[in-house]
């Protein structure tokens, strides 16, 4: 109770400071808002009260400090996409906290409001919101904003200055293409103290999975078309993507399976990540790994040398410039189209996605703020934080993580792809044949999935939220 009082007192003092500059006024008008936080679960339905405290501390307490006479009720429900409409109809909340896939479904069913009229009437500043967030949400709404999100994560290219300095190679730059990045990575691949240093890592998963999440999506390649229920991988573009990844793996430019290279790897507390362990000169990362890197550097001593680093923007595909691989947001919120408190609901969303709220939240290690002006380099370090803000996400038409949760057939589909990729990488079959077999055998799996699905798959949203 004391902690809550102190936190609210601190919030009030900050806003009081703002009021001296005419940035903040307390609104004493009474009102009531109901907020429903919906979390996807693959099966069943449940409720978790523990989410309320987190949501209140992040959003509700701050809003109520400005609107002390507005009563807010909150509920958190776990449900499937198939039951989400009935849950909303039964509770009829004013504001819905949701993920991009759920937003896509609710837009299709006219269950959330277009915010454009509210934005125009209040002259709400969209220019200060990261294009990554703004354009990503517009993509879900086919050009319209049906929600806003105050937090996001995007990817950048992290590089080890020490390794570049040792080899005398110039640092990466913003706006490089993938081909330029891979050419640079080839020059950074070498033996050091009997251990292989790789030029680049696309992430902590297998080469195949990293390819899907960090490379082919931003290229605009789709693994399948959910509307037709068919695979779409048998193309020159997919074949070239596979060949690129396989060549990088075979030439030791990119880490391959542990079974091939484990004997060359350093054993240590950061062995789970190629960059943090010093095995990779560059890596595709989000802010989570950068925070881990900062913590690592604080502990550096003896054999654990400090890594000097910086970041540049995610590489571009010339055929799809400025594109990122996914939309990754937190706090995505929409107004229920059946709400009787549209204006008050909008005032809540406007506040949480505005400058005042972002000013309070500056310095978050877990997320980046959608209001980019309030993102500062963590721990007063000097790095290229603007690299996070330059891209816009591509909508692949499906969410691989969600699909696998909803139907194990999609797990089989990806496992089939991994198997074919490994066969091609090991030289047992050629790439063209491997992809053709993934296409043909994958269609069999999709047919089985579709024949066992009673309702049309409505998962056409934009990738991930966290």
List the main descriptive attributes of the protein structure presented here.
five-stranded mixed beta sheet; disordered C terminus; 17 strands; alpha+beta; D-Maltodextrin-Binding Protein, domain 2; disordered N terminus; 2 domains; 466 residues; three-stranded antiparallel beta sheet
Structure commentary:
With 466 residues, the protein is an alpha+beta fold. It contains 17 helices and 17 strands. A 5-stranded mixed beta sheet has the order 2-3-1-4-15, with helices on both faces. The chain has a 3-stranded antiparallel beta sheet with strand order 14-5-16, with no helix packed on it. A 3-stranded antiparallel beta sheet has the order 11-6-12. A hairpin with a 2-residue loop joins strand 7 (190-192) and strand 8.
* Global shape: globular
Structural domain count? 2
* Arithmetic mean pLDDT: 86
Uncertain spans, ≥5 residues at pLDDT below 50? 1-23, 45-50, 259-266, 454-466
Count of separate DSSP helical elements: 17
CATH architecture of the largest domain: 3-Layer(aba) Sandwich
Going across the biggest sheet, name each strand in turn: 2-3-1-4-15
CATH superfamily of the largest domain: Periplasmic binding protein-like II
Measured distance between first and last alpha carbons:
29 Å
Radius of gyration: 24 Å
Measured by DSSP, the beta-strand proportion falls in 5-15%
Tally the beta strands. 17
Give the helix/strand class: alpha+beta
Please give the largest β-sheet: 5 strands, mixed
**Percentage of residues in helical conformation:** 40-55%
CATH topology of the largest domain: D-Maltodextrin-Binding Protein, domain 2
């Amino acid at each position: 109770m004391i902690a809550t009082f102190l936190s609210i007192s601190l919030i009030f003092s900050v806003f009081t400071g703002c009021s001296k500059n005419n940035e903040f006024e307390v609104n004493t008008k009474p009102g009531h808002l109901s907020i429903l936080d919906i979390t996807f679960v693959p099966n069943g339905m449940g409720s978790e009260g523990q989410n309320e405290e987190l949501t209140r501390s992040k959003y509700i307490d701050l809003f109520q400090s400005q609107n002390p006479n507005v009563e807010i009720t909150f509920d958190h429900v776990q449900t499937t996409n198939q039951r989400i409409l009935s849950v909303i109809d039964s509770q009829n909340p004013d504001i819905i906290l949701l993920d991009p896939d759920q937003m896509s479904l609710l837009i299709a069913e006219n269950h959330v409001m277009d915010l454009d009229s509210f934005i125009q009437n209040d002259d709400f500043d969209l220019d200060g919101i990261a294009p990554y967030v703004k354009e990503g949400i517009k993509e879900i709404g086919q050009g319209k904003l049906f929600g806003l999100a105050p937090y996001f994560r995007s990817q950048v290219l992290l590089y080890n200055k020490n390794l570049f300095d040792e080899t005398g190679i110039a640092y990466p730059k913003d706006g490089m293409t993938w081909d330029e990045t891979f050419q640079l990575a080839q020059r950074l691949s070498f033996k050091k103290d009997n251990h292989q240093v790789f030029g680049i890592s696309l992430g902590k998963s297998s080469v195949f999975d990293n390819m899907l999440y960090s490379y082919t999506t931003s290229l605009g390649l789709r693994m399948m078309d959910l509307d037709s229920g068919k695979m779409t991988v048998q193309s020159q573009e997919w074949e070239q993507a596979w060949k690129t990844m396989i060549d990088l793996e075979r030439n030791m430019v990119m880490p391959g399976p542990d079974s091939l290279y484990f004997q060359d790897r350093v054993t240590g507390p950061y062995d789970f990540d190629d960059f943090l362990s010093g095995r990779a000169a560059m890596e595709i990362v989000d802010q989570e790994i950068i925070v881990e890197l900062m913590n690592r550097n604080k502990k550096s001593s003896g054999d654990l040398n400090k890594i000097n680093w910086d970041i540049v923007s995610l590489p571009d595909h010339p055929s799809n410039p400025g594109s990122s691989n996914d939309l990754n947001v937190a706090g995505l919120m929409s107004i229920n189209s059946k709400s009787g408190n549209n204006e008050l609901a909008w005032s809540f969303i406007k506040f949480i996605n505005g400058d005042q709220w972002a000013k309070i939240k500056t310095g978050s290690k877990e997320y980046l703020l959608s209001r980019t002006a309030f993102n500062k380099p963590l721990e007063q370090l000097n790095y290229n934080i603007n690299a996070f803000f330059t891209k816009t996400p591509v909508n692949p038409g499906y969410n691989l993580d969600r699909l696998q949760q909803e139907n194990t057939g999609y797990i089989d589909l990806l496992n089939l792809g991994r198997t074919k990729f490994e066969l091609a990488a090991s030289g047992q079959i050629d790439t063209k044949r491997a992809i053709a077999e993934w296409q043909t055998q994958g269609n069999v799996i999709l047919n089985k999935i579709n024949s066992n699905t009673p309702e049309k798959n409505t998962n056409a949203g934009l990738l991930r939220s966290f």
